[in-house]
Write a structure and sequence with these properties.
Protocatechuate 3,4-Dioxygenase, subunit A; four-stranded antiparallel beta sheet; globular; 9 strands
Amino acid sequence: MALPRTPSQTVGPYYAIGLCRRDDNVLDPDGVELTGQLLDGQGEPIGDGMVELLDPVARTWGRSGTDREGRFSFRVRPDVEALEVLVFARGLLRHERTRCVLADLHGDGPLVFDIHMQGQNPTVFYEV
């Protein structure tokens, strides 16, 4: 007789102690900065989330915890066309997947990719 499956547990919160042992957010040391905010349905920052990026061309991977303002940052290849994005946050039973195809360049500043979990302009998430 097979045992019933147990439900998934809510992920997070993530504590900085587990995210600061090495530069997990550097996919390319000579790359450009990509920053963003992880925001809930009311536009409030999610300060205990985690964002992971995968560059499928360079075969590099990175992870960044969010700060109190929901900010995360990475260093990526300047010619990157698309990044696979995984989002882990409180209240999620499983991580969410999206893709960063086009980020907004603010003058000489970093590339910006904000993630809206819900709300009027939610980020599009997909299943694999």
